[in-house]
Amino acid sequence: MGDLAKIFKAYDVRGVVPDELDEPIAEAVGAAFVEVTGAKALVVARDMRLSGRSLTAAFVRGATARGADVLDAGLGSTDLLYYASGSLDLPGVMFTASHNPARDNGLKMCRAGAVPVGGDTGLTDVRDLAAGFLASGVPEGPVRGTVTEKDLLRGYADHLRALVDLSAIRPLRVVVDAGNAMGGHTVPAVFDGLPLHLTPLYFELDGTFPNHEANPLEPANLRDLQQAVLDTGADLGLAFDGDADRCWVIDERGRSVSPSAITALVAARELAKHPGATVIHNLITSHGVPEIVREHGGVPVRTRVGHSFIKAEMARTGAVFGGEHSAHYYFRDFWFADSGMLAALHVLAALGEQDGPLSRVVAGFSRYHASGEINSTVADQAGALASVRAAFAGRGGFDELDGLTVTGSGWWFNLRASNTEPLLRLNAEAADESKMTAIRDEVLAVVRSDK
User: Start and end of every Alpha-D-phosphohexomutase alpha/beta/alpha domain (predicted)?
Assistant: First the structure.
């Protein structure tokens, strides 16, 4: 099971094709998914990666061999798959490696109603059963399931537009960088008929990512968007990742808007509609997020990083909204699932409902100086964490909800191992920029000395 153990992560499957993930594995996972979920029918979709069609077809062979009927939605974003799972009440599987390089691919799985399948909620069972099918072959059930193709893009777009009213906003000029990925498929459908003048960048679907990787967390991948916002005099820019479930926002000055500020902005809007509701934030969003949630009458709940953890906590608490530092945004009205497009519509509504620039709109939601996420490749991750703990002993409070969080007077940082890559990730924040820089540099010096 060595290969499967490597590609089955905490909340999805992801690996290099075909070295780590190939058609026989996809077929075995398809059969295992049906067995674990008990699905009589399910829905699949895929992003534009070159391996997507063949891997999806192999998965469908495994699923139908075990008797499940498959609705194939074809090309789509991950939040389109969640829409399909939620609106049709079917288990679903999205073929994507999100923001990873072109050779990678993977699977994001959910039960009916877009309920996530993670390591503790069935993904480990899928892995173990798939390993058995790989060894002995996928057994045919008494009746093979059917395959039906259906385009769900228009229903998805209509559903999102029904959740955020943009009918009365002022006309806005928007630049969108789709990174040759699924935003190029979904943005035109969602924006159709809205009072928006769209300047598209890299909307042609191309799984080789010829212009830049579809990963807006990397500043280099935002430069074309930032320049286009300035060149066109746009009101804002939006960047989507490979499967278009994350959205990054650029203001009219060409500057990045922190996902924590977007989390706080959307939380305030949702709390205006749902007074007293709970809002989820992961432990590395800005401390300004829970402050603003409380100020708007909401109840902030802190959780660990990762979409399956956020969704589970949202379902447990009935939270109206949740946000992550990585530009994932989750909505109760969207089956507790994440949708970068829905967050983008909230930003457009907040901007278009008043006359000021976006920088002024978000200024009240940005209170602290943050490092952003800084990655370090470290051979001995446990040793590096222990060294950081020793270096900061007695200087603040320690918390191990997810990695190591140290909170001092006017500053905090979190250092945690990635769930999907061999990295230690650092996030630091302070009320004063010089203090944030000093804390950031001290932690990095310890971490990188342990390489």
Answer: 6-120, 155-254, 262-367
Same domain, 356 and 383: no
Which of 420, 306, 428, 449 minimizes the C-alpha distance to 374? 428
Fill in the DSSP letter of residue 169.
Answer: S
CATH of the domain at 401: 3.30.310.50
Q: Alpha-carbon distance 268 to 179, whole Å?
A: 30
36 and 19 Cβ atoms separated by less than 8 Å: no
Residues 7 and 99 in one domain: yes
pLDDT 10s digits, 42-57: 999 999 999 999 999 9
Active site residue 98: yes
Q: How far is CA 244 from CA 179, 408, 433, in A?
A: 10, 36, 32
Same domain, yes or no: 198 and 290: no
Does 377 share its domain with 415?
Answer: yes
- How high does pLDDT run on average in the chain? 95
With beta carbons less than 8 A apart as the criterion, state whether 292 and 231 touch: no
CATH number reported for the structural domain that contains residue 289 in this entry: 3.40.120.10
Amino acid identity, position 31? A
Give the active site residue among 51, 98, 326, 366. Answer: 98
Q: Are residues 134 and 175 in the same domain?
A: no
Distance CA 303, CA 282 (A): 5
CA 397 to chain CA centroid, Å, is 29
Give 372-420 as a DSSP string.
Answer: --EEE--S-HHHHHHHHHHHTTTSSEEE-SSSEEEEETTEEEEEEE-SS
Q: Are 366 and 187 in contact (CB under 8 A)?
A: no
Kindly give the pairing relationship between strand 236-240 and strand 172-177: parallel
Whether this prediction's pTM lies above 0.90 is answered by yes
* 18 cis-preceded (ω within 30 degrees of 0): yes
Domain of 172, in residue numbers: 155-254
Please, what is the Cα angle at 326 between 374 and 104, to 5 degrees? 85
3-state DSSP call for residue 332? helix
Q: Name 426's Cβ contacts closer than 8 Å, sequence gap at least 6.
A: 371, 373, 374, 375, 376, 413, 414, 415, 440, 443, 444, 447
End-to-end CA distance of the chain: 29
Looking at the fold, whether 295 and 350 belong to one and the same domain comes out as: yes
Q: What is the pLDDT of residues 409-419, one digit of tens each?
A: 999 999 999 86
How many C-alpha atoms does 451 have within 13 Å on its Cβ side? Answer: 8
If one counts every other C-beta atom within 10 angstroms of the C-beta of residue 300, the result is 17
Instruction: Note whether 187 and 244 are same-domain residues.
Output: yes
